[in-house]
Amino acid sequence: MAIRVLLVDDQPLLRTGFRMILEAEGDIAVVGEAGDGLQALEQVRALQPDVALMDIRMPRMDGVEATRQITGPERNGPAKVLVLTTFDLDEYVVEALRAGASGFLLKDAPAAELVQAIRVVAAGEAMLAPSITRRLLDKYAGKLPSGEEEVPDALGTLTDREVEVLKLVARGLSNAEIAADLFVSETTVKTHVGHVLTKLSLRDRVQAAVYAYESGLVRPGDR
């Protein structure tokens, strides 16, 4: 079945461009469009898309609040949110990730990257671009803990290897890269990541990365 996508952006020209790119793919169907967050909520309820491609700054309701309502505990449907952004709006992306977005993508990303991101998010994975993640968290380090705060008790439930994996996830490494770094199989890494998400009650790798920074486990600038 085709991946059902809702386009949410207050610029009609951009929506048209995204539609042309996505409808050229046999496994993706654009089922609707919305020009602001309120329309997005209405369309999500009516159309039940798999992925909402979400702009951040829009009239009436911004993308952060729309994301929070679409992915929150009272969500009504399967929709996952992939946020679109430019670097001058990075601080909003951090908020969108906390609100429940499954990832983010630059508006000037190549068409192939947009298509792949939608497939990844629709499959239930997180679109965690390493270079963007590191720049985001480094740039907004002032909004994150100083490192002097008490480490959350939940981290104590992780094994040493799971802590290692969490740190590498926070750096934006893929499962394959983590496997190479730790000299283990990719299947083993997937198992560790699953345990981390379960023990910390996190939804996906994006939330895990944000948690690692907010808890002070990883410091901005760490490599």
Architecture overview:
Helix 7 (160-170) crosses helix 9 (186-199). With 223 residues, the chain is of the alpha/beta class. It is built from ten helices and five strands. Strand 4, helix 4 (90-99) and strand 5 (103-106) form a beta-alpha-beta unit. Helix content is 48%, strand content 12%. It has helices spanning 12-23, 37-47, 63-71, 90-99, 111-122, 130-139, 160-170, 175-182, 186-199, 205-214, and strands at 3-8, 28-34, 51-54, 80-85, 103-106. The longest helix is centred in the last third of the chain and has 14 residues, at 186-199. The chain has two domains: 3-138, Rossmann fold; 153-215, Winged helix-like DNA-binding domain superfamily/Winged helix DNA-binding domain (Arc Repressor Mutant, subunit A), CATH 1.10.10.10. The model has no long low-confidence stretch (mean pLDDT 83). It has a five-stranded parallel beta sheet with strand order 2-1-3-4-5, with helices on both faces.
In a few lines, what is going on in this structure?
By secondary structure, this protein is α/β, with parallel strands linked by helices. The chain has 10 helices and 5 strands.
User: How many structural domains are formed by the residues?
Assistant: 2
Residue runs with pLDDT of under 50 for 5 or more positions = none
H/E series, N to C? EHEHEHEHEHHHHHH
Under the CATH scheme, which architecture of the largest domain would be assigned?
3-Layer(aba) Sandwich
Q: Name the overall outline.
A: globular
Share of helix, binned: 40-55%
List the strand order in the largest sheet.
2-1-3-4-5
Secondary structure: number of strands: 5
Distance between the termini: 40 Å
CATH topology title of the largest domain: Rossmann fold
User: Structural class from helices and strands?
Assistant: alpha/beta
Q: What Rg do the Cα atoms give?
A: 17 Å
* Percent range for β-strand residues: 5-15%
Q: Average pLDDT, to the nearest integer?
A: 83
Number of helices: 10
CATH superfamily of the largest domain: Response regulator
CATH class of the largest domain: Alpha Beta
Biggest sheet details: 5 strands, parallel
